[in-house]
Amino acid sequence: MKKKIKIIGLTGGIGSGKSSVLQLFKNKGLAIYNADIEAKLLMQENHQLIKKITDYFGKEAYESGQLNRKYLAHEVFKNPEKLKVLNALVHPVVRKHFQSFIKKQKSPIVILENAILFESGMDQLCDAVITITAPTETRIQRIMQRDGVSKQQVLDRMNNQLEDHLKMKKSDFVIENIQWEQTAQEVEKIYKEILPEHL
Question: What is the mean pLDDT of residues 124-152?
Fold first, then answer.
């Protein structure tokens, strides 16, 4: 009988440093699934999803067969209703893709990174959840530098995500990602705690 794979959710607001923390778990040989990256790939490759996005957002959603991210971002970040529609189209496809991914894994643990883990309901698939936090100003600076966007654009994105204190309440582990050495130590501690007993 195949042993049950442990699914650990990893979430946090934009600019909290989720991807860097995910890399630390990956370095330990754990299987990882980055829902944000996979969602973008599925929006580019899944024909049914492409049709649904085009039907709702118009032909401008794709340019020469490529997802027009700039147009979509402009459409949804200041319009909660449109964002809700986009998420309702994308989430079920990502969830199905993740479940197929799980079936192929040999690793005893899979880390599921998802910026909107709770909002999408994918936390229900997890055995435990880790939330990464950082002070708002730190996160704003990180995103402005990384994406070359204005403070207002970062704030628009943040406003569409569940607030940190609500995520923290629903999480089993919380890492405050300010000092990288401290973060790495926290990851080490959590890693030892989530390892299945039979290893």
Answer: 93
